[in-house]
Amino acid sequence: MSVIAQAAWLSLSVVLGGLTHIAFIKKNLLPGLATRRLDGGLTLRGRPIFGANKTLRGALVMTAATALWTVIIDSIQRIGGLDDGLRYVSTDQIGSLALGALLGGAYILGELPNSFLKRQLDISPGFPAKGPMKPVFWTLDQLDSALAVLLALSLLRVPSLVFAVVLLAITMLLHPTIAALMVMLGLKDRVG
Predict the structure, then answer these.
(1) In a domain? residue 68
(2) Is 189 inside any structural domain?
(3) How much is the pLDDT for 9?
């Protein structure tokens, strides 16, 4: 099976999990969880640890939605008689639900170090860095979660360099596209 097809198939549930999260934000579903920050309001040096945009709703919805979408996508693969090689990680090794939860959880955890750095540098949530750090943080914003997903995958199957590069390339294409969608929906002020 093509590495590109495997990376795209694996990415699909994470992308759909992210779009589900966007729908929850747009419809203001689970508003009580949207105000519960992952950092609990704690600060370091007078600055938030992660900031107001990293919430319990985001963590739970992204993890649960990615798990659900992974089950649906794996079911489509089986029912549709698509090649088993399409799955990068066999469901014999880990069930679809557990794989999806792993991917969704890794996605959220991958965003946290970048958020921490930005808060400590006084970069407000949802705003880009300025000056020479702008391209560095723009790149980190695109790749942080994908790198965490690759790290989580390595618990099950160590990704080849080719797979990792393809997954990161897909991410570099999809992440700004989804950010543009969020701008169109009024959930963000800018793409980068």
Answers:
(1) yes
(2) no
(3) 92
